[in-house]
Amino acid sequence: MKILIAEDDRITLKMLTHHLERWGHTVLTADDGERAWELLNRHQDIFLLITDWMMPRMNGLQLCRLVRGLKRDRHIHIIMLSAKEEKSDLLEGMEAGADAFIHKPLNLMEFKAQLRVAERITRLEAKLSERFRDLQKAHEELQHDLEAAGKIQRSLLPDRTPNIRGVQPAWAFQSCEAVAGDMLNIFYLDEHRMGMYILDVSGHGVQAALLSVSLSRVLTPFAQYGGILKRRLNHPPYYEIPDVIEVAKTLNRRFPVMEQSGQFFTFLYGILDLACGRFRFVRAGHPGPLFVSHKTIQTFEDGGGPPIGIFDDPNYEAEEIEMHSGDYLIAYTDGLVETANEAGALFGDSKLMQLLKYCAYPGAETAIADILSHVKRFAGKKPFDDDMSMVGFTLD
């Protein structure tokens, strides 16, 4: 262990150096505080400073304060030598940064005992530093893995501009962590029908993301991949598209609330008949969509059913909207309206409705982009507490 002694008394300095070197330590010496400070800055591997209180040019208290101001990964243990015995003096030394005191004239047994304490503290700190570095490395690796998982999850989202005849789809996805519990999609079911869903798994982070990814696999519109939105048949047209209520009930059977985690999810799923513009949807504990027609905003606050997985055999109700050219619809997760700013106020349903009413957006794409921008400005520097997603479409 490399030790620095700052002592202007030559006899004390020589005695301490002799014993410390005999006990196997590397010793640096200084006869005043300024010289000691120079050595401390030159040698980054000093673990212990033994300093006298009274020294020329810079005393022990001043040296202690400078040492405690150093930005180093490891703690420098400080033993202060002094003939002072008043409690107020000891307190002043401790406040300056000293870890221990040895009274003059020196008692070799006391000095050796304090040295052992310093060695023990130094070894413990070295172990803690090593463990901290290991934890830091593990954290970085975990963060890297989470970011990779987030990229995989985002790859499950729809194309930025899905090509659906007669429809202008739009969506936004904002996770509060590397991975999210929200998931959405908008897609062709067949040449006559379009499907759209959005879901929000309770909780955040990896556990919620794992369930949302599993759900995205189940909610595929491709019958050959075992999805529940489109079933295979053995006769023409070789598939059938289950009603929205049946989809919700199937999910409820397959994904009961987990006893250990208590996880469940809210869900909105709708089917648009591309020929007549009828949008039939079901919602399970999910906020109702916003339907805008000729600057008139329709909300859906009642109806629906409980979140998926809460009850064994819940009752779900379907709702329908007759859409015409220029009408648009937006579904969202509750993280949107529950976004808080730095003062703790929520964005809320009222601000969302004001935007739709006064901005007179021409369609879902413009509305979703502008709403997201307003929510981010509202939150300011405060990080998002929840995932936030929107999906919708405008009828040509």
TrEMBL record:
GO molecular function: phosphatase activity
UniProt xrefs under InterPro entries: Bact_Sigma-Reg (IPR052016), CheY-like_superfamily (IPR011006), PPM-type-like_dom_sf (IPR036457), PPM-type_phosphatase-like_dom (IPR001932), Sig_transdc_resp-reg_receiver (IPR001789)
Residues carrying 4-aspartylphosphate: 52
Domain of life: Bacteria
Domain Response regulatory span(s) in chain numbering: 2-119
Entry's Gene Ontology BP terms: phosphorelay signal transduction system
Keywords: Hydrolase, Phosphoprotein
Pfam families recorded: Response_reg (PF00072), SpoIIE (PF07228)
Residues spanning the membrane: none
Database matches in PROSITE patterns: RESPONSE_REGULATORY
Name of this protein: SpoIIE family protein phosphatase
Source organism of the structure: Acanthopleuribacter pedis
